[in-house]
Give the backbone structure.
Amino acid sequence: MKRPTGTPTRTGKSPVADKRSPAAPPEGGKPRKVKRHPRPRRGGILGWIAGLVTLVWRIIWGSIWRLAMVVALIIGAASAYFYVGLPEAQALFDGRARGSVTMLDRDGRVFAWRGETYGAVDSDQIAPVLREAVISAEDRRFFRHFGVSPRGIASAIRINLAEGRGPLEGNGGSTITQQVAKLLCLGETFDPRRFANEAEFEADCRSGGVWRKIKEIPFAFAMEAKYSKDEILSIYMNRSYLGGGARGFEAASQVYFNKPASQVNTSEAAMLAGLLPAPSRYAPTASLERAQNRASVVLGLMAQEGYLTEAELAQARANPATLSKAASARAGGYFADWLMESGPGFLTSETTEDVTITTTFDQRIQRAAERALQRIFDEKVKDGSASEAAVVVMSADGAVRAMIGGRDTRVSGVFNRATQAKRQTGSSFKPFVYAAALEAGYSPADRIEDGPLTIRIPGGRNWSPQNYTRNYRGMVTLTQSLAQSLNTSTIRLQEAVGRDAVIRVARDFGIVSNLTTSPSLGLGASEATLLELTGAYAGIRNGGTSVAPYGVVEVSVQGDDRPLMGQTGGFGQRVISQRAAGQLIYMMQKVIQEGTGTRAKLGSRPVAGKTGTTSSYRDAWFVGFTEQYVTGVWMGYDDNTPLSGVTGGGLPAEIWQAVMSEIHDGLPELALSTVSPDGSGIIMSSGDSTPRVVTSGSADDPLAAALAGVMNTVEAERTGRVVTAPTEVTGAPATPGSSTEASSDDALSRALNGILGGN
């Protein structure tokens, strides 16, 4: 049977066809509408609000992800820009604008640093416990983040707000990577057109602010991409400033503990890590107790991070870190400051190299002087007194051995009263009047009147000096006049010798400050520093040859074999003869033996010196010497308040005696080279290996007296000068007396010296 062809005729409804297409409209009619269930309509205002919220959310969300994409692109581009400019990690270790100055004492030991000391080390060359302390204290998630820690920033903002600060004030939540970005100034370099100096530039780099925080983010990402975590940590541990002039943990470890950073223990590591937030405040040299308390906090953080067990924590807290002996002493701050100020800038304060200076400084003498000064103030000065003191100790050749510029000896970079304070010298200037007189031919035994005196000054004014006691002694010898520090007799002598001669002697001995030309010159109306005056007395001590006080023996750049410069001072030109110097030393011995300076006695040790007190009691001095050392002491108030009951023969003499007793402990008692008052005694200098004749003759020896007579004749023939008594001063009677003295440079002395010296 054939299968029908064509389109089959459907007689019934097909459910499949019904699903494929809607039912055909009735013939000749409209399409039939399919009934749908309407959506439920939201009722009233709630529906309107819901629609509005949906619309706003769509707008915000769309803006956020688009903004986030833009920000991500900007950060990525900025990070790529910074990445390209970053050098190798080791090139970033040393970020100092200036070099360092390391100072060695006379024995070659380091006693002070200036500038920023530095020692480059990789983080793996630092003790592991120090790395752990730094990470615990500064960024415990350091090894888990990519340069920025949102959690840390959020926590810092919360703490700042809770403590009443702005969100970005105080705790910053910065990671170590971000701190490195700040240390690197975000790749910027010093521009002299924008900043006055490097300090201002660094301050700007360290400043906060939203914009700088934003810039830190791409820079931190760039460093995380460029460097390993160890390299970032190495940069951080080398560039961080840790107080005491130390840049980096290696330098800080040497400064505070006198050991490399690879050898610090747990307590020392915690103290070093604790310096990071505030180096000046937490520096152990500023306050050891405060530094130890901060270290205890760091130890607790280390225990929280699992770096320390409870037993190790207890052990470290029970044995806190202490300073090394050198750091604890902190000797020589004023001395180091003096060298930095007086030395050439390109080798000191402005050096771009690491410089080593070998100095004349003696740490034993410095500590002894500090102990003595402290003891006198503790015992003799009332509590709360604001009076100050300064001390300088030097050898006779001008080599400064110790310096104290104020009562607070554990400081640096402060006002130095030994070198910067110009004060009236008072009667401590008088030896230069007598030196000029002795050089002119006067004798210590010559007599001069101590009595009322009036000098007319141009302009019609009169000046009448008075003695401290307001009493007068009548006729006195020059030795008595100096020993008792008499004013009127000293001025009579000055006017007889001539003020110009006195000024010449003082200047040639090293008083470089301006000297008055008025009659009050001889009473110390002019100003000088303690260093100047002590150096001038050293010239008297060494026999009349001037010295230039100095502290530098040798300067060299680290790494160079040859020094750049050598000694900067020492012996100068002869100012007065050996005879005159010997006679003056004899007279200055009498000041201490029986005059105004008896409190300065050192037992049987020969000493010489002079007291000084200004007329208004604003300054008190004592300067003197033994065969080994010359020491000067000043005391007064910074604001020129008069001292209460203090004269040069009082506390300054006691300070001098205490200092000299300390520094001469164990040293032999050596005689000073002096000349007898009549100039005729044979005095052998005891300061040299070969004896020298300072003068010749003895008052009790006929042969010596004859030799002295011969020398007097030789001297008179050579110079044609006959020494007479002091001439009359306006308003004063003549002072009789005469002297004919042999010069220390006379022919017989030279001959005797030649014989003794073997030439």
Remarks:
- Confidence is low (pLDDT under 50) at residues 1-21, 680-759.
- The first helix runs from residue 15 to 20.
- The chain is about 40% helix and 10% strand.
